[in-house]
């Protein structure tokens, strides 16, 4: 099972009201939550480790996980409020305003997390859950404790406006990078992590030197490239899509990468780094395929496996 560790929150999506004003509709979301949902819909065994509220929004999130066949054994429930993210859309691009103080998600502490189920073979981390303690430190401790036994994928998906202590966040991300096997970044993430004047390839080299054996860079409509410490670069084009919005696109891409790597037997510590170029290309291409479906419809709405008409089941 792939255990997705991080935030589950409510995206408040703008919608026109009857009087031509703007209201907000609550949609289940969060970067790590979206990846878990996408994995479940793709038929990959997936679980979620997060803090969920017992309020109406927490119940909405819990119901959504179960409806997409995500294992909730490791969810920690509390009476704290749910995290809310108000979304603004401009030309299909999403920006966020978060309300997270004292939330069930934010206040997840190390002592809340018990032993992981024995069938957990890979851990996925990322998003705003790595920004602020105590939850951020809880996930760091979990990653360090299971490094070497579980494959670890990290997508920092950096939201600078959400970080309360930038030096502490940089130190935390450095420790996460040191134990990660696969890291996915955008060019914006890479520029924030390494803000100097160095060229892109120098920053990627610094990222790989920090720990991971594979770095995947996504460039929206320009596709994705995997960079390996042995010097190989494998690129795939983006799948053609009529973009409605980009909410959840990167999260779904990550699910596609994890799902295909799992199917090919590559989701082990160091497994993807030792794979052939054709296998790595298949992993990236599947990520691009499922992300293309998500961007073609409103909100974070990943595809079910049967929607991928051209995808053949694993042998």
TrEMBL record:
CDD domains in UniProt: bac_FRK (cd01167)
Name of the protein this chain belongs to: Carbohydrate kinase
Family label: Belongs to the carbohydrate kinase PfkB family.
Source organism per UniProt: Pseudooceanicola lipolyticus
Organism taxonomic ancestry: Bacteria, Pseudomonadati, Pseudomonadota, Alphaproteobacteria, Rhodobacterales
rRNA-binding is among the record's keywords: no
Domain annotation Carbohydrate kinase PfkB: ranges: 2-304
Stored Gene3D superfamilies: 3.40.1190.20
Keyword terms, alphabetized: ATP-binding, Kinase, Nucleotide-binding, Transferase
GO molecular function: ATP binding; kinase activity
Claim: Kinase is one of the keywords in the record: yes
């Amino acid at each position: 099972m792939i255990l997705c560790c991080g935030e589950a929150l409510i995206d408040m999506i703008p919608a026109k009201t009857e009087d031509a004003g703007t209201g907000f509709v609550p949609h289940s979301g969060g970067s790590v939550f979206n990846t878990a949902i996408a994995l479940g819909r793709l038929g990959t065994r997936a679980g979620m480790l997060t803090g969920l509220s017992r309020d109406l929004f927490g119940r909405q999130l819990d119901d959504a996980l179960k409806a997409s066949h995500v294992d909730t054994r490791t969810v920690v429930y509390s009476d704290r409020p749910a995290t809310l993210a108000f979304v603004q859309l401009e030309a299909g691009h999403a920006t966020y305003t978060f309300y997270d103080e004292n939330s069930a998600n934010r206040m997840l502490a190390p002592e809340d997390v018990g032993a992981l189920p024995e069938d957990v073979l890979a851990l996925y981390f990322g998003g705003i859950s790595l920004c602020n303690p105590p939850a951020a430190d809880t996930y760091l401790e979990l990653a360090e404790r299971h490094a070497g036994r579980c494959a670890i994928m990290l997508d920092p998906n950096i939201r600078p406006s959400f970080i309360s202590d930038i030096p502490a966040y940089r130190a935390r991300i450095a420790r996460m990078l040191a134990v990660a096997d696969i890291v996915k970044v955008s060019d914006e993430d890479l520029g924030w992590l390494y803000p100097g004047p160095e060229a892109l390839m120098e920053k990627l080299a610094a990222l790989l030197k920090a720990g991971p054996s594979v770095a995947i860079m996504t460039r929206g409509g320009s596709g994705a490239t995997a960079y390996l410490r042995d010097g190989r670069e494998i690129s795939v084009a983006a799948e053609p899509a009529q973009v409605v919005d980009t909410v959840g696109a990167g999260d779904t891409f990550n699910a596609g990468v994890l799902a295909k790597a799992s199917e090919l037997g590559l989701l082990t510590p160091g497994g993807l780094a030792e794979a052939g170029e054709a296998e790595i290309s298949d992993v990236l291409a599947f990520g691009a395929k499922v992300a293309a479906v998500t961007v073609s419809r409103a909100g974070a709405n990943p595809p079910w496996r049967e929607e991928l008409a051209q995808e053949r089941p694993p042998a």
